[in-house]
Structures are given as structure tokens and as C-alpha cells.
Write a structure and sequence with these properties.
By secondary structure, this protein is α+β, with helices and mostly antiparallel strands. 25% of the residues lie in helices and 26% in strands. Strand 9 and strand 10 form a beta hairpin.
């Protein structure tokens, strides 16, 4: 009798346990299959709406990336580019930066009656042959004594003032010049006065170019 009552007790406990497991399984199945059939949302579900992106951090991140990709980036404003210099053609006017102007006196001291002599040279260092006006007004030789302007090749020029020469790269144009030891002026005097003995400075000038100063003396 004692043994039979014990079996009945455990059978009842197992039945209750199995019933509980069946209920749990049915509830789980109902929850998993609830999305396949039409359901009537409860009042709580209809009043609260949860966006998929808010519920799923991964979807929210993808949504943010999609919005960032779709937004066009501002087009940078083009900067004002400096126009490139056109290549120089042979025969074009020489650039002052491509020219080297120099002058050399024949002597440092000139005895009475001896005319000073100078050699003026102009060299093209540019990439191609170019042209330059080497006339007495464009390529001027000026002699001064202190602040006193004594003589200049640009005073009282006779004949054609312009003398355009083609300068090959590296080939100097050379001119020899004598000074008659007289002063010059723009009014073209017929009998200009002679320069006094003393120290003088000679400089060749061409636009903004200047040769080194040449210092000499007249006796």
C-alpha cells in the first residue's frame, strides 16, 4: 500500500511538469508564428510606434551611412590659377631679365687730348634668340661727375634713333664708343664746353638695366 501511494504521487508530479512544459511550448510557438498571420494590435501596441532604426542599432547605423552618402558634398570653389607664361618665340622682344649689360673703359686715366674709349656689351641669356633696340637712346651711356650730368648718348641724336638687333643666346653684342671730352645737353649747342680735368663715372643704361660703374680720370 505504501509503495503504491508513492508511485501515484510521483506520477502526478510528472503530469503537472509535463503540462507546464506543454503550455510553455505552446506559448513560445504562438509568439514565434504570430507575425505570419493577421493580428489585431492591442491598444498598447497601437499607441506606441517603434521605428526599426530606433529598435535596431545596426539598422540605425546603416540609415545614417545612407543619408551621409546621399548628401552631396559641396564643390570646392576653383582657385584663381596664375596663367602660365607662353613660351617665347625666336625673334620676340628680349625680356630684361634675360639680358646682361656691361661696360668697360679702355683706361683708368686719360692724358690731355686723349679721348676716353668704352666697350659696351649686351648678352642674351634667354632660351631663344630675341630682339632688342641698341640705339643710343635705348642703350644709353651716361657720364657724370658727382651730381652733375656731363654727357649722354641720348642727347642730340642724329639719324635713326632705333637700332633693333637680333641677339643669339650667349653671343654678345659689342659696341665701341669714344667720348670727345665735351659736355652734352638736350638743347644741342653748336659749341659745347669741354669737360674739366677730374674724376668721372660712366654707366651704361637700358631700361631698368644698369652696368657696373666705370670710374676714370681726365688729365
Amino acid at each position: 500500500m505504501g509503495d503504491g501511494s508513492g508511485d501515484i504521487y510521483w506520477r502526478r508530479r510528472m503530469s503537472v511538469l509535463v503540462a507546464v512544459l506543454v503550455v510553455v511550448a505552446v506559448v513560445a510557438w504562438a509568439c514565434s508564428s504570430g507575425g505570419s498571420g493577421p493580428q489585431r494590435p492591442s491598444s498598447t501596441q497601437s499607441s506606441v510606434s517603434v521605428s526599426p532604426t530606433a529598435a535596431d542599432p545596426l539598422l540605425a547605423g546603416l540609415h545614417t551611412m545612407t543619408m551621409d552618402t546621399a548628401t552631396p558634398s559641396p564643390t570646392p570653389s576653383p582657385s584663381k590659377a596664375t596663367p602660365a607664361a607662353l613660351p617665347k618665340r625666336p625673334g620676340d622682344p628680349c625680356s630684361e631679365g634675360d639680358l646682361v649689360l656691361s661696360m668697360q673703359g679702355k683706361q683708368d686715366v686719360y692724358a690731355p687730348g686723349v679721348q676716353p674709349n668704352f666697350l659696351i656689351s649686351l648678352v642674351n641669356t634667354g632660351p631663344v634668340m630675341c630682339s632688342a633696340d641698341v640705339g643710343p637712346r635705348s642703350m644709353e651711356v651716361r657720364i657724370t661727375s658727382g651730381a652733375d650730368r656731363i654727357w649722354s648718348t641720348s642727347d642730340c641724336v642724329s639719324g635713326e634713333a632705333a637700332q633693333v638687333k637680333q641677339l643669339q643666346r650667349g653671343v654678345p653684342f659689342v659696341r665701341s664708343l669714344d667720348w670727345d671730352r665735351r659736355r652734352s645737353s638736350s638743347d644741342c649747342r653748336t659749341d659745347p664746353p669741354a669737360a674739366l680735368p677730374g674724376t668721372y663715372v660712366a654707366v651704361a643704361r637700358m631700361g631698368k638695366l644698369r652696368s657696373p660703374m666705370g670710374v676714370f680720370q681726365l688729365r
